[in-house]
Structure to design on (1162 residues):
């Protein structure tokens, strides 16, 4: 490819609304162009990256036995009503009416449509297992689209769906996909982790996120440096502390803490470690009548150590809270505790409620909590002596750096990541409401077992950039770079030798199947180098009159501090040896 | 590819709503699956055809210097309001609101978005000419979607847009695309014609449709068998008849024609050729005030020979009618002619109107028309003697078989076609309202000259099938077949020799880059052959025990009446020699 025949459009400054480095660099490098909030055109330079990602994904999906199809962007409401997602999904689901006033959605994923295909096409156990996927435009009407293509509204996703005859086979299909994903992400050339994720109501451990590691990532990745344990923050288990609860050493005592409504403030006032304080969170569960009205509510008091954060996923698994919960209203809190939030605690409650202690709190002694009176806390609180043992003890919190690894092989560390893939065992979540059955050996209809497997195709370039950039611009891994090599001639318009050498090298590399661009735009060296450094082409070779006199070209990898001289005659072979793809 | 790892799903019967053969065969061959009215999933077998079409289009577009990008499916209303298409386009334009109640459309084409990109990116004459294209999902909310993917609502289109500094350069860009389109359609292996089409208000001859020839096509293609003239029915010019108007030989006479309100009925009653009758069509043009209300209307009487059909595009070019016209209302007709339609004519009118005669009518003598009195016609009518010469003479009609070719090289013939491509010179139609300018050499802003170039990617498989099918199924050209060769082993499960020979041939062909499928499903020969004939794979090779004993395989092209024996050792080379791709 010659640069003069391509569309290169770099900017000195990123637009003001580009908050993160990947968005800034993609705009500056001319990879994408904003059309509206969360809606981008992929410019030629960016589209090349997308196409390379798609090609890798397609190859590995096919190799893993998945079959490509293409499902529509605009989907009739009917199938979405069958699974209930039509009403369950909120405004993120873009709804549209046609000229006859019939309802449609703009697909955010395709579980319903693929299940509809499967229930028609896969009628016998002989046709299973089967994995169908497509790479297609999706839309999610995000409340606050941001970070460019990282959280855009329109995007391209690869979504695959497996259909199996039973859970054992479905789990094998899941494992095949999890392995294919590792092959895909290995080929991208990005540092990533496959982290265990919560599998929701399905249970089991068959949900993994593929996270590209980046300090700027939105997600916390929990991992053990001494083992292969990795999970997301929702999933990572906080083990019960080792050892048993110490004996009480302090009397219980009410102390004035005027204006100190947070654990941190109270700890500071009392001169004690934050780890000695306990925070009270009040939840409610509701009993509804047939009309959906609340008939009766039950309050729950959750106790967490002052320095810990509640994990809603884990709380949602506590028996009694697992059918859904909400935070209690201010009125409910005052009614039960006699005081508004800030000074709450489990001592001397006016009305009964269920006290659930985090595993950590359950083994604490001499702790501090609110006194259920504004401006007062209680110190020296001890289980059994001052209040009954908790109704339940459970893992309620997010893990923190230094917690024990659930696999017992060391301590947990935390890094940041960007989720770009997800493999998920669905069970019969979709096949059941849609009655997607096949006939087994005995001719009896059985529900299909499903899995779903997504890769955020257009999110990946942004994640790759968040991981690989410097103050000059992007640094692409070879496999997904828009071009692998930039041939940069200096003074091509003045020197026939430079022109000939640059074009020969370009042609040789093209013939060898290397994705090379020859910068024949006639830019000055500084501007030309700055462009390719911003765009992030990993390999650069400079052709100059001075170099040619010595029979040399100058090679520099985007990460190299300085250039390496390469004899002209060896340049093509040298470069081919450097390229990893 | 092995069939057991693919999704093959053939049907004995097409669904009842499949009216045309391509729709029937695509459904029966498992190429597409209906999700809703005019909305289809592309099943794996069909998607392979689409991808091959896309690849050919992409290669030739790139070769012609166009650069690929990707514009969004969901586009903000704002750019569509700039060109006025937001309000001008009717319910075919699918409109959607986001969660913030902002207006968007689901793209039917991308003129607005690409012009928005161009006005930002192409700022200097140095960056022109430029051609940008994308291959993307489109939506048109057809009133009556039908014929499967032939007239679906969601479809994939390749749309390219050229930007040039002046009309001369734009015309060169147009010519480059017209040439690229010929290369593309040649590669598809379909019989097609590039036909001149009307270029609307732009004028000139820079609009061509690419029509796949098929007896079932919706469009009439006018061509001259003795020259390269070809045009669509809207465009094809009806030349003025040779020779001058004959002298009058009959007196004008009012004759009773009770109940005979059509030219055909009148000709039959009077025992004269239909070619002697003249039909009267009444149009109106309106003068509007600033509020858009009709201030004054002018009626027009169009005269066409009884056997000819009016061509609205041509009528719209008659001076005075070129700013828009409508058919006159019944009330207007009665007011002017004193009688409702059926017995109208240009003789003895109560009020003045503009009479426009078709070229053919202008040279007729002794003709028959309505007498402006119910149940009566007038015979022996002659220009000049019985009525004034017409206000205007123009080409108002569709050509018919046997008309003179406009290039003077023979007579016109008509065949049917399916439009699958269109190249069009736009001028400043979009750049002007959107103020898409570049700076010329003197630093002055100039409007860009544009062209647009579409190919109906997902319509092409249907058009190809309409052209290439028989009672057993589809017959794909090699270049766009889902698989090029089907290797059909007989009794693969019983015979190790058959299995080994079939797999070796498959592997050899794969290694040679041939798109082959090995049918390892274990179907009986009859069912297996019927499947591949229905699916339309062009080349079939049968591996059987009986054949192997003689050292032979049996080859049959989908169009061949019988099989040819091929020595086993030569089979791979033989097949590679047969494949055209």
């Amino acid at each position: 490819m010659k640069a003069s025949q391509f569309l290169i459009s770099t900017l000195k400054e990123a637009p003001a609304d580009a908050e993160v480095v990947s968005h800034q660099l993609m705009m500056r490098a001319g990879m994408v162009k904003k059309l509206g909030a969360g809606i981008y055109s992929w410019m030629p330079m960016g589209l090349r990256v997308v196409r390379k990602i798609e090609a890798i994904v397609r190859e590995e999906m096919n190799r893993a036995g998945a079959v490509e199809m293409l499902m529509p962007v605009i989907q009739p409401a009917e199938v979405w009503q069958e699974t209930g997602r039509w009403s369950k999904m909120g405004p993120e689901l873009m709804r549209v009416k046609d000229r006859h006033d019939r309802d449609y959605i703009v697909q955010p994923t395709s579980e319903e449509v693929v299940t509809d295909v499967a229930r028609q096409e896969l009628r016998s156990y002989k046709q299973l297992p089967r994995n169908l996927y497509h790479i297609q435009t999706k839309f999610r009407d995000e409340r606050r689209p941001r970070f460019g293509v990282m959280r855009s509204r329109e995007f391209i996703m690869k979504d695959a769906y497996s259909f199996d005859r039973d859970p054992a086979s479905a789990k094998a299909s899941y494992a095949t996909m999890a392995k294919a994903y590792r092959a895909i992400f290995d080929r991208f050339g990005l540092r990533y982790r496959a982290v265990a994720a919560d599998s929701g109501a399905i249970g089991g451990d068959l949900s993994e996120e593929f996270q590209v590691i980046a300090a700027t990532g939105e997600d916390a990745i929990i991992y053990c440096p001494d083992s292969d344990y990795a999970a997301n923050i929702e999933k990572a288990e906080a083990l019960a502390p080792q050892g048993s609860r110490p004996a009480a050493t302090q009397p219980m005592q009410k102390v004035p803490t005027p204006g100190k409504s947070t654990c941190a403030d109270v700890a500071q006032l009392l001169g004690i470690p934050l780890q000695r304080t306990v925070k009270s969170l009040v939840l409610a569960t509701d009993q509804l009548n047939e009309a959906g009205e609340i008939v009766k509510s039950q309050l729950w008091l959750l106790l967490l150590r002052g320095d810990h954060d509640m994990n809603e996923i884990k709380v949602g698994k506590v028996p009694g809270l697992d059918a859904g919960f909400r935070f209690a209203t201010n009125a409910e809190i005052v009614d039960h505790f006699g005081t508004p939030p800030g000074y709450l605690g489990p001592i001397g409650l006016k009305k009964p409620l269920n006290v659930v202690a985090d595993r950590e709190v359950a083994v604490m002694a001499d702790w501090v909590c609110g006194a259920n009176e504004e401006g007062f806390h209680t110190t020296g609180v001890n289980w059994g002596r001052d209040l009954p043992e908790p109704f339940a003890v459970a893992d309620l919190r997010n893990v923190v750096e230094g917690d024990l690894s659930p696999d017992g092989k060391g301590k947990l560390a935390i890094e940041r990541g960007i989720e770009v893939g997800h493999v998920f065992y669905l069970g019969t979540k979709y096949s059941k409401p849609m009655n997607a059955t096949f006939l087994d050996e005995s001719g009896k209809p059985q529900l299909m077992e499903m899995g779903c497997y997504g890769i955020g195709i257009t999110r990946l370039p942004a994640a790759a950039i968040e991981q690989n950039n410097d103050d000059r611009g992007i640094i692409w891994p070879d496999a997904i770079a828009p071009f692998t090599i930039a041939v940069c001639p200096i003074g091509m318009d003045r020197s026939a030798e430079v022109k000939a050498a640059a074009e020969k090298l370009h042609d040789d590399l093209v013939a060898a199947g290397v994705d090379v661009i020859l910068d024949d735009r006639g830019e000055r060296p500084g501007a030309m180098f700055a462009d390719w450094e911003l765009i992030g082409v990993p390999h650069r070779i400079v052709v100059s009159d001075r170099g040619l006199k010595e029979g040399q070209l100058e090679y520099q990898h985007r990460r190299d501090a300085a250039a390496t001289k390469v004899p002209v005659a060896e340049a093509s072979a040298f470069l081919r040896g450097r390229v990893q793809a």
Remarks:
- Chain B has a mean pLDDT of 95.
- Chain B touches chain A through 52 residues (CB under 8 Å).
- Residues 167-188 of chain B form the longest helix (22 residues).
- The domain at 48-210+420-463 of chain B is CATH 3.30.930.10 (BirA Bifunctional Protein; domain 2).
